[in-house]
Each structure stands twice: as structure tokens, then as C-alpha cells.
């Protein structure tokens, strides 16, 4: 960051809650709620990348969909550049949509097989901008060039592209209306490593050139570490730890983060079998019957009886480093990890 | 010299399609010792899974056809066996686990019945005995309350638990060879770690040899003793996992390792090394090296013909590339 001034937050998510009713049948009242997202807050500065990592069922994708206003949140606020997009609806919401766009995981499912690649992008332009037909045409050409496709490929159908190329089309479509925020849900998880590198490099270049802000959802720790400036770790609907990239990967504090980091393969065969791995037993509990205390306590190697009593708050243990664990002590201003890999 | 447990040599497979004949495997060779783990790596479409299916003789014919080569299990050529004898080997001496555990399990039968089926078929056990073996296996793969869960259906298990069930099924007859085709791709990291631990542990305890198919160099570093790197239907490099990961010789292997964002040498945020382009279509008849169009170190002769395989030591390391060809100086 060469500029001295703070670019300010683009996205502010405050106490976001997404609860889904379950059971109860057609007319009956829902007896239970799945607390998919249960009080999530974070801020994303303009031009940066904010990562959310977590395993299946952690609520990371639901958070992304709620920010996109594609699932209805049941509580909290979503502010985009100061505008409360969480409260917008109807035509007002539709007008705001050009400012935030999404890239999904599966490039095979997110393009209409009957539409030419160029039409997918053209349609987004027609829906979200006032561009004339000629301007749209020119913009399609520009966008194709920007994502590394040849202009004549706009005539082809999705099945004529490889997975990596389709993700380029999806990016071109997302960028059509000059969005400020791009929400990416596992955008490279379906791609081969070699192609993954191409798309990640492209995303970084586009971010620099277009001053994009990314909200990046992934279960892949190495991809998140590569791309994100700040990272939140989610577990069962809540953020358990949040910090800037280097802090979080060098000094993870929450036992779940430590276990997650230690489970990732090391790329170094000589490190194998060094007993550095913390094994987590079992699966996460159901988000319907959440435990009373810490949500991770049942699987936590460092849990004490008191951990099962009450849910700990997300506390700032050092500037910008937030942890939800009552076993993290701060001694002389330094947070002490309870587990080490 | 005694036979290795499994030896694949000169394997060739082609598929007839409407647009022509695709040569999906050409001259694929590798050996697997007892209790060894061989990693097969490469991008999608490089022939990793087809190699495994061919070794199990599970290639659908037609449109597929094994055109050349041998698959020797303790010296006996599986490709020459009558189908009935091959059936006796599958699931008993060689078994396979697939990427998607939900589609590989029959939703209409209990997991116990599905594990017991192989035991009844191959070891001529009674149902009661086979079910108790199934319980034992579920317990061995770390499923809690195995005696109760043996009567549960696949949908009652989580993704990681289903993959454990698959492993229990594959190992129920104590096979000599276990082929695991991307066994953890659909799973979370912590569950992946559990499954890798489990496979390693079972391998040590039972002496089962493992072929691990993956596109993840991290998984190779974690699991494999040896690694064969495949590209467009050929093994382009093979050697001890430590050697290949630390000193890759083939430019494709170098690219595969360098483009992964997780390795230690990579500084977060810096651009990743890219392998430009994509895997070529196997329908295009080609002379020379299939990687030439994506290779940063390509030479004119690479497009004309392939070099002979360069073998280091007594086969400890093999590479298929002009940069390392024995007749490099003569030809240059």
C-alpha cells in the first residue's frame, strides 16, 4: 500500500444471521432452526481480498450467498460502501446488484449451455448497464481480452471450452458492469492445479487493474494463503478466528485453526510422519442442536469442563487478531497458544 | 530376481469415438512392491484413472480396447486371464476406491451387506460370519459403534464416514493391491488427513500395496514412496517421491510442482508459476512430445519425435525428455 490514506471499508458485515427453519410441515410452525450463520461480523477494505475458510457446514458459502442477497438473512446488516444493501429490496436492490457480483465454484453449472459465451456477457451488460448495442459489443471484446480469451471465442458455446476457460468467461460476465465487490465461492476448486495457477494469477491481475475487492470463500488453505490479505476461519456458523494473513498462518491461536493448519499436506516428503498433525476426532455436531458452550469443545484437544458451559466471545487478543476461545491467555500483551502443531 | 507384486509394462489403451481413435495410454510401465505406495499424478485427462481401470480390466470394451502390454500380478499376466478368473481377483486380491463415495455405494443396502458381499463371494463365508467380518472392518477404519452402524444405510453416514466404509469394503478381503482414485478430493482437509492416516496405518499392518491417483502434489508428499507423473497418456517421469519432488527433471513435473500455491518456496501473494495452455486432445495424432506446446524449454526436435526413455541407476529414476536423453549430445 503506497497511499498514506486509508481506502476505507467497502464491505461491512455486522452480526449477520441466517437461520433456516426445519420441520413443522406445510402449515405447522417450524420446531427447529438450522443456525447456518449465527452472528458473523467482518470488514473488507476497498481493493483488498478477504478470505473465509472452513469445512463443509461451517457456513462460509451461506455467508457469501447472504452478502450477495441470494439467501435471505434473518438478522444483521450488510453495508456496501455505506449503502445498506441488506435492507434494499425490489428495484432498489436490482439497481445495486451491478456493484456486487459473484463467481461460483462449478464453471460447468454456471453457464447456460445453449447460450454463446459472448451472449452470457452481453446479457449481463444489457441487464445492468445503459450501454447501447454497439457499446455492449465493444465491451464484450474488451472483457474477453481482459480475461485472456480471444474475441472470436465469444461465438462459441460453453461445451467448447475447458474448465479453466469457462471460469474466465464467468469472470468476464461478473466484471461486465464494473462491480466493486466480487464474491468468489471456491472459484478454482474444480480446476486442475496448472489451470488453478492461471486463474489465480488472472484474478490478481484484474484486482490490480480494476481496483476490485474480493470476498473469497475456500476450503483450500494454500489458495487462501496465497490470495487473501485478511482471513476469517469459520466453524459451525461463527467466526472462531480472524487476522491478517501472515499473523493467522504463522501464529494460529484457536485450537481449530491449529488443527486445520496441521492437517494440510506439507509438500515436503521429509516432514512426513513427524507427529506434527493434530487429529480431530469425529465430525462437527449438527447445526440444529448446537452445544451450549463452545461449538468446537466436543472435538477440541484442549477443552476443559468450563468450555462446555458458555460460548466464548470473539475477543481481540492483539491488534486485528480476533479469537473465540476462553483458553487463550494474553501474557505481557502476547497471546499464548494453547495448542501447537 | 523375484517378481514385484504388481508390474505394468508397455500398457496401451485406445478408445474409438465418432471423431476417431483416441490413444489414451501409450507404453505405460511401472512396478509396485509389496507394501509400497505409488503415486500416479497428472492433470485431468492424462490417463491416471484409465491406467487403474486397465490394470483392473474394467475398461468398457467397446469403445475401449487394451492394445498392448502386460499387467503382472506376482508374475501372472492378468490381461491373459479368462474373465471368470479376473472376477475372482477383483475385490479379493486387488480392489479399488473411487473419488465420490456416495455414488459408489448402493443406497438400497446396508453398508454391512455391501461389505459382506465381497467376503461371501471371495472367501465363501456364511452370511453371519461375513457380517461379523464387516463389523470388524468398520471398527478397523475407525467408525464408532461399528456393531450398530453395520446395519445402517449409506445416507446415514457423513462424507468422510462413507469414504471409510468404501475403504472397509475394499480391504475386507485383505487385498494385495489397493487402488485409490482421488480418495479425498471430495473431503475436507481434516477428514482427508484422517483418511490418509488410515490408509498408511492399514498398509503397514496388512502389507497391502497402494496406488494413489491424485492431482495433488501435497498428497504425494504425504503418502507416496514412488511417483509416476503422467502426461497425455504416457509416464513422463518416475522415481522416488523425495527425488521427484525435490529435483524434478521433466519440465512438466517442474511445472506441476511450481504452480502449487502451497509449497514453502512460494511467497504468498507473488504470482504463481503457470503452465500455459491445456492438456492436448488425445484425438490429435502427434509426432514428438505431447507437452512440447506448453513447454518453456522446447527444442525443434521435441516436435518431431520422442527420445528413448532415460533410465538412471538400475531403474531408480526414469524420464522421457530430450533434455535428459542419453543420446543428447550425439543428436544435438
Report on this structure.
The complex is a heterodimer of chains A (341) and B (332). With 341 residues, chain A is α/β, with parallel strands linked by helices. Chain A folds into two domains: 178 residues, P-loop containing nucleotide triphosphate hydrolases (Rossmann fold, 3-Layer(aba) Sandwich), CATH 3.40.50.300; 90 residues, no CATH class. Chain A is built from nine helices and 14 strands. In chain A, strands 6-7-8-3-9-10-12-11 form an eight-stranded mixed β-sheet, sandwiched between helices. In chain A, strand 13 and strand 14 form a beta hairpin. In chain A, helix 4 crosses helix 5. Chain A is globular. Chain B is α/β, with parallel strands linked by helices and 332 residues long. In chain B, 48% of the residues are buried. In chain B, strands 6-7-8-3-9-10-12-11 form an eight-stranded mixed β-sheet, with helices on both faces. Chain B has a four-stranded antiparallel β-sheet with strand order 2-1-4-5, with helices on one face. Chain B folds into two domains: 239 residues, P-loop containing nucleotide triphosphate hydrolases (Rossmann fold), CATH 3.40.50.300; 72 residues, no CATH class. In chain B, helix 4 packs across helix 5, helix 5 packs across helix 7 and helix 7 packs parallel to helix 8. Classes of the chains: A alpha/beta (341), B alpha/beta (332). At the A-B interface, helix 6, helix 7, helix 8 and helix 9 of A face helix 7, helix 8, helix 9 and helix 10 of B.
Amino acid at each position: 500500500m503506497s497511499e498514506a490514506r486509508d481506502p476505507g471499508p467497502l464491505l461491512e458485515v455486522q452480526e449477520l444471521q441466517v437461520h433456516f427453519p426445519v420441520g413443522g410441515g406445510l402449515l405447522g410452525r417450524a420446531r427447529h432452526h438450522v443456525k447456518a450463520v449465527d452472528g458473523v461480523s467482518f470488514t473488507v477494505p476497498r481493493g483488498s481480498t478477504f478470505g473465509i475458510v472452513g469445512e463443509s457446514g461451517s457456513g462460509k458459502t451461506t455467508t457469501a450467498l447472504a452478502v450477495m442477497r441470494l439467501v435471505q438473512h434473518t438478522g444483521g446488516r450488510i453495508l456496501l460502501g455505506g449503502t445498506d444493501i441488506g435492507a434494499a429490496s425490489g428495484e432498489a436492490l436490482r439497481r445495486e446488484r451491478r456493484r456486487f457480483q459473484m463467481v461460483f465454484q462449478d464453471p460447468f453449472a454456471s453457464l447456460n449451455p445453449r447460450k454463446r459465451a459472448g451472449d452470457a456477457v452481453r446479457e449481463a451488460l444489457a441487464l445492468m448497464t445503459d450501454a447501447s448495442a454497439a457499446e455492449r459489443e465493444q465491451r464484450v471484446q474488451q472483457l474477453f481480452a481482459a480475461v485472456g480469451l480471444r474475441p472470436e471465442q465469444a461465438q462459441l458455446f460453453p461445451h467448447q471450452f475447458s474448465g479453466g476457460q469457462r471460469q474466465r468467461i464467468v469472470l468476464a460476465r461478473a466484471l461486465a458492469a464494473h462491480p466493486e465487490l466480487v464474491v468468489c465461492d471456491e472459484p478454482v476448486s474444480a480446476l486442475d492445479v496448472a489451470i488453478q495457477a492461471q486463474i489465480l494469477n488472472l484474478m490478481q491481475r484484474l484486482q490490480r487493474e480494476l481496483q476490485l475487492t474480493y470476498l473469497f470463500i475456500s476450503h483450500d488453505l494454500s489458495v487462501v494463503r496465497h490470495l487473501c490479505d485478511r482471513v476469517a476461519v469459520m466453524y459451525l456458523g461463527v467466526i472462531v478466528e480472524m487476522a491478517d494473513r501472515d499473523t493467522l498462518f504463522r501464529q494460529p491461536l484457536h485450537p481449530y485453526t491449529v488443527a486445520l493448519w496441521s492437517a494440510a499436506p506439507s509438500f515436503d516428503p521429509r516432514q512426513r510422519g513427524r507427529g506434527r498433525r493434530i487429529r480431530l476426532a469425529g465430525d462437527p455436531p449438527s447445526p440444529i442442536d448446537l452445544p451450549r458452550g463452545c461449538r468446537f469443545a466436543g472435538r477440541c484437544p484442549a477443552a476443559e469442563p468450563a468450555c462446555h458451559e458458555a460460548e466464548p466471545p470473539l475477543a481481540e487478543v492483539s491488534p486485528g487478531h480476533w479469537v473465540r476461545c476462553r483458553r487463550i491467555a494474553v501474557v505481557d500483551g502476547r497471546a499464548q497458544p494453547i495448542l501447537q502443531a | 530376481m523375484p517378481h514385484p507384486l504388481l508390474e505394468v509394462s508397455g500398457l496401451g489403451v485406445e478408445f474409438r469415438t465418432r471423431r476417431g481413435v483416441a490413444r489414451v495410454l501409450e507404453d505405460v510401465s511401472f512396478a509396485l512392491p509389496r507394501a509400497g505406495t505409488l503415486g500416479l499424478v497428472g492433470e485431468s485427462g492424462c490417463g491416471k484413472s484409465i491406467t487403474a481401470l486397465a490394470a483392473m480390466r474394467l475398461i468398457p470394451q467397446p469403445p475401449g480396447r487394451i492394445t498392448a502390454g502386460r499387467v503382472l500380478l506376482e508374475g501372472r499376466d492378468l490381461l491373459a486371464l479368462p474373465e471368470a478368473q479376473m472376477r475372482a481377483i477383483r475385490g479379493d486380491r486387488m480392489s479399488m476406491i473411487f473419488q465420490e463415495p456416495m455414488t459408489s455405494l448402493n443406497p438400497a443396502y446396508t453398508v454391512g451387506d455391501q461389505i459382506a458381499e465381497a467376503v461371501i463371494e471371495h472367501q465363501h463365508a456364511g452370511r453371519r460370519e461375513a457380517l461379523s467380518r464387516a463389523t470388524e472392518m468398520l471398527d478397523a477404519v475407525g467408525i464408532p459403534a461399528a456393531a450398530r452402524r453395520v446395519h445402517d444405510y449409506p445416507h446415514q453416514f457423513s462424507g468422510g464416514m462413507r469414504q471409510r466404509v468404501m475403504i472397509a469394503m475394499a480391504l475386507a478381503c485383505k487385498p494385495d493391491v489397493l487402488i485409490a482414485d482421488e480418495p479425498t478430493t471430495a473431503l475436507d482437509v481434516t477428514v482427508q488427513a484422517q483418511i490418509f492416516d488410515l490408509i498408511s496405518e492399514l498398509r503397514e499392518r496388512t502389507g497391502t500395496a497402494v496406488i494413489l491417483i491424485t492431482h495433488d502434489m501435497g498428497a504425494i508428499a504425504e503418502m507416496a514412496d514412488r511417483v509416476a507423473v503422467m502426461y497425455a497418456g504416457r509416464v513422463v517421469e518416475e522415481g522416488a517421491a523425495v527425488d521427484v519432488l525435490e529435483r524434478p527433471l521433466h519440465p512438466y513435473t517442474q511445472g506441476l510442482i511450481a504452480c502449487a500455491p502451497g509449497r514453502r518456496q512460494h511467497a504468498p501473494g507473488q504470482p504463481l508459476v503457470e503452465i500455459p495452455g491445456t492438456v492436448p486432445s488425445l484425438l490429435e495424432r502427434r509426432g514428438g512430445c505431447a507437452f512440447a506446446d506448453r513447454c518453456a524449454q522446447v527444442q525443434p526436435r521435441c516436435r518431431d519425435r520422442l527420445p528413448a526413455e532415460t533410465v538412471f541407476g538400475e531403474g531408480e529414476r526414469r524420464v522421457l525428455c530430450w533434455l535428459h536423453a542419453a543420446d543428447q549430445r550425439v543428436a544435438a
